[in-house]
Amino acid sequence: MSATAPLKPRGRLFFANPGPTNIPDSILHAIGHYAVDFNDPEFLKLYEECWEGVLRVMKTTQHMFMYTGSGHAAWEASLVNLLSAGDTMLVLETGNFSESWGRMAADLGIIVQTLPCDWRVGADMAALRAALAADTGHAIKAIGAVHNETSTGMFLPIDEIRAALNATGHPALLLVDTISSLGCIDLQMDEWGVDVVVGGSQKGLMLPTGMAFTGVSQKALDASKDANLPRHYFSWKAMSARKQRSFIGTVPTNQFFGLRESIRLIEEEGLENVFNRHARLAEAVRRCVRHWSGNNGPQLYCANPTRESNSVTAVLMPEGFSAEAVRNTTKDRFNVSLGGGLARLNGKVFRIGHLGDLNEPMILGTLAAIEMAFRINNVPHAAGGVDAAMAYLADA
Ligand SMILES: *Cc1c(COP(=O)(O)O)cnc(C)c1O
């Protein structure tokens, strides 16, 4: 380290994790509200506004339930309200999050069938169609699909899953985890016949962690009446009896002051413009990583160009070089926080979160810190990835 290098990084923490994400100042200020009674008519008005806003982001006019908890709460709620012990759920393998959701289902007494895949290539829709066609007795009650696999930086075409269900006339419920895609990548709950949309507060919606929700179709609500897995805190039936139609116990009122501002920000920009911004910034990141991959450098973990995620990019290190060393350098020297590799990808990949409250200089700053960390750690790469990102952003 040179004599002029700072001992401790200065400036604001530059946060480039794929969840939680940066919280805009206006949301932080909105959340800093005094306590209110969650049955007060004035609060209920705000609550309804938020409710309608989340439905618009999910592109549905159907039902919703909300939970105090992280995304896992909404995962669990979707399973315990819709399935019975011994029911089969088909999980499309995508990466660490599809595996975790599947493990949760197995722990709850659900029989989990997995449609396996190579994590760098993604689920094969023809294989899905074959699996559904083979299930002539309709043992599969639900399909679990992760719209955007945050551990690998790959998305799943949900409309193609719907097409496979329709083509085979299979009645399974379609459960979709949108925790890292809601408000980042287009999702059309009603148009694509999604029965449950699982979402969380701390990714595309730019809120603190601690609130989750499920968009629920009429078909799913009907199916919940026959499901018998034990449930209490997550019971849709109990929630439906409440004025708020959600939450058992105290409603997290402060989150709603933030949620109103989140929806306002998203709709002020325009939902489609938000998607386009994510697509543009993601493409800049990918061009940078593709450039770095010269000289046997780090490369995109996602090896399927039709499935690249617009909210997170996983970068695969060259053999023998540690992703953790790169992350430690960006954090300790430049105050830039990156996501690590999850489960079997630990140490092999680092992840750049490019979702939520984000613009060009934030992305370029992150990429520049990473390129410096490559130099510092003697990681082979083609220098100039940041230039490739700048060239794209200046022109596109
Ligand atoms: C973050 C994430 C989860 C887990 O959500 P928590 O809020 O951490 O419980 C699940 N699925 C995906 C795709 C995620 O990105």
How would you describe what is shown here?
This protein has helices spanning about 25-30, 40-60, 70-80, 95-105, 125-135, 160-170, 220-225, 235-240, 255-270, 270-290, 325-335, 360-375, 385-395; strands spanning about 15, 65-70, 90, 110-115, 140-145, 150, 155, 175, 195-200, 210-215, 300, 310-315, 335-340, 350-355. With about 400 residues, it is α/β, with parallel strands linked by helices. The chain folds into two domains: about 25-265, Type I PLP-dependent aspartate aminotransferase-like (Major domain) (Aspartate Aminotransferase, domain 2, 3-Layer(aba) Sandwich); about 270-395, Aspartate Aminotransferase, domain 1 (Alpha-Beta Complex). It has a seven-stranded mixed sheet, sandwiched between helices. The chain is globular, with a radius of gyration of 22 Å. The mean pLDDT is about 95.
Quick overview of this protein structure:
With 396 residues, this protein is of the alpha/beta class. 41% of the residues lie in helices and 16% in strands. The chain folds into two domains: 25-267, Aspartate Aminotransferase, domain 2 (3-Layer(aba) Sandwich), CATH 3.40.640.10; 271-395, Alpha-Beta Complex (Aspartate Aminotransferase, domain 1), CATH 3.90.1150.
